[in-house]
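Example record

The entry below shows one chain as it appears in the dataset: sequence first, then structure tokens.
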Amino acid sequence: MPPASSAPAPRDLLLTGARVWSAPDAPVGEPGVLLVRDGVVRQVGGDVPPDADLPHVDVGGRVVTAGYTNSHIHLSERVWARARTAPAAALQAEIDDMLLSRGFTTALDLGSDPRHTLPVVQRIASGDLRGPEILVTGATLMPRRGLPFYVRETMPWYARRWIPTPASAAAARRAVAVRHGRGVVLTKLFTGSLVERDRVLAMDVDVARAAVEESHRRGLLVLAHPTDREGTAVALRAGVDALAHVPSVAGGTADLLREAADRGTRLIPTLHMFAAMVNPDDGFMEPVRDGLRVFLAAGGRVLFGTDVGYLTDRDVRPELEAMAACGMTTADVLRSLTTEPAAFLDRPDAGEVRPGARGDLTVLTHTVPDLAAGDLADVDLVVRAGQVVHQAPAFCDEPPVTGVR
């Protein structure tokens, strides 16, 4: 079976001059030592260890957080179709631009062709490519005759046979089992599919529930594309773990978003995607923003995600700023990037910078603790399992960095 995720060989690394922001609700520390050994954080603060003969980076007082997670991406662009055989340099440039330069050490691919995506995962695991950990859903489960119109317009006709559209609970269970056997580790459902520009088709709730039950039996988390009120209701009745978007078709979803918050169902807003790819007008966007505000007011838990791969703009700043405009503090936004995805994925060793946590780190450009949400987009260095996997060109001219190929 193909690997479910990619993990580089653990490394040792010493950062000095690191202003550690250990967790969203913690204060930003004074410049000091951050030691990673065998891919795990061993020391935060204090003096340089006397035996620290290991790769060393002076980050010059920059703020260091836990590595970011993008909880909604798609490796579905044409460049990934040759992922098994393409030269490493070509793919590396795409991974750098799409993910690493944005600070991501983990990413959730919520819909792509596993024949293309899993080779990327494999090549990262082998060391042929530097990259984040990528967890994949493979092809999304759609309602019967429920392919979205925008997918039909862009997908070759012969590729449509790879999209599972189960018509029964038994077929949904089989679809989950087959995809899991091929190496996917998440399930994505279109519980509400925009089959025409003005018509949404909901997935049968029994089909959706069967897919969720089979996924959970196999240890897979389930995310749903809800679209409208009925699609959101199906997702909640089926018991999904997260909504991959705020519902975007107006129709009174406030009560369902409150229910989702009460259930602990996570929400990935993708506000910038809607504005950039669907309709930027306030008449369309304000109900979408209000959906996030309702969810937040009910105590809902948010995951950061951009839908990049479908969204052509790879800059994360517009999404960070859109979330802040809906009332999220900088700490809230950092939480959606770090501790919330760690909790969602049930990873107690992730999401914070503390002894015993995994050595996945994002080093910002900034040296001051008072940051706006958009400042979280300014990334100078990315570390995964103690290995420097990305450094910004401007940073290359400053401290010496050991470990970047």
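Notes for this example: Residues 282-297 form the longest helix (16 residues). The radius of gyration is 21 Å.
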